Amino acid sequence: MVSGPVKIGIVEDNSLLRLSLNASLEKENVEVVFSVATAVEALQQLESAQIDVLIADLHLGETINGIDVSLLWQKAHPKLGVVYLTSYDDPRLISGGKSPVLAENSVYLTKGSISEIDQLVQAIYSTLEGHSESHVRTGPLASLTDVQMETLSLLALGHSNKEIARIRGINEESVAISLNRISKVLGLPAQMDRNQRVHLARVVLRGQGQ
Q1: Residue 168 to residue 58: CA distance in whole angstroms
Q2: What is the domain partition of the chain in residue ranges?
């Protein structure tokens, strides 16, 4: 446990939320050492800034996402705590459907689940105590396997069944069968038409907080 104010860094690309976090946390026993909008800015702080906990959004609008930033920071500072604060219900949505490796001493929070700043402060202190909370998947995507999530993510990116089959190394018929199974798991009509793709893409967008 650190003595004195907890020193944190924030990487969040939403300007309004970033300002709100700064103002709210500074009323607690927390010192905001840096608050930046991009992954590049966060990594530029790696050598000079001394922080106890990194608060990171997942989607930063860049090639490098918040998980990448947290892992690079923790490689340089192994005792660093990490709080993922994101609109993504499922972290697999940021990694093409595959289950990403999250930082140690980390807590995963969705922005929609936070109603009071105390919840975020509690998560910050939890990481300092060496606790690492595995993300408990919620929502309709939670029941999908990584392979199904990969297929769904490719569909949401606009790939055709033929393109998905090529990327995954399977045939088009297998893709169609997989999409029907995914629709069934999600409680959507399993029909081979454009509407099915639209409904599936909407599920992904909702899981991303859009």
Answers
A1: 25
A2: 6-128, 140-207
C-alpha span between 84 and 99 (Å, rounded) = 15
Report CA-CA distances (Å) from 117 to 20, 120, 201, 207.
Answer: 10, 5, 32, 23
Q: Give 48's contacts (C-beta < 8 A, 6+ positions apart).
A: none
> Which CATH code fits 6-128?
3.40.50.2300
pLDDT, one tens digit per residue, over 114-160 is 889 999 999 999 999 876 665 556 677 888 999 999 999 999 889 99
What would the DSSP string read from start to end of 77-119? STT-EEEEEES-SSGGGGTTTS-PPPPSSEEEEEGGG--SHHH
